[in-house]
Amino acid sequence: MATAIYGQRLRELGGNIAPAVVTPVESVAINPQRSVAHPTDILVQQPSALASIDPVNTVTNWREKASIAIKQGDLAGAITCYQELIQVDSQSVAGPYNLGQIYRSQGRWSEAIACYQQALQIVEQQGGQSDLNIQVWEIYQNLGDVYQENGDVDEAIKAYQQALDLSND
Which has the closest alpha carbon to 63: 40, 34, 33? Predict the structure, then answer.
């Protein structure tokens, strides 16, 4: 399905993707661990990018919409997309983790903490596995960072210790 969407978008651009391409650095908006551009990057600078994605409520669609919204600077739109993603797939770590990343970037500490904790609960339910390209210890590290940024040193230490324990496995 994604191939069809990108093909359609390329046809609309007359085959010239140059004005729409962003650098890999720009594609790291929320997830700093991401080192390569995402396929939706070619859609970033196109105003109709969100409209070009199939409106069916699927995990992939909500992830793509959120990614595009972030790249367009529409964090409110991205928040809505990740909230929808959580509704569509309550067992995906991506929704709460990425929502936590946005809340963290906005200084919304309690919301970020709740999202990271939700992501960790899902990981625990899945036997320590994550559907993201990050390690579980990284979620704990981000949680510790938010606790520290919020001034809760004791909780930050606990989260950092969990991150260390898991990263040494």
Answer: 40
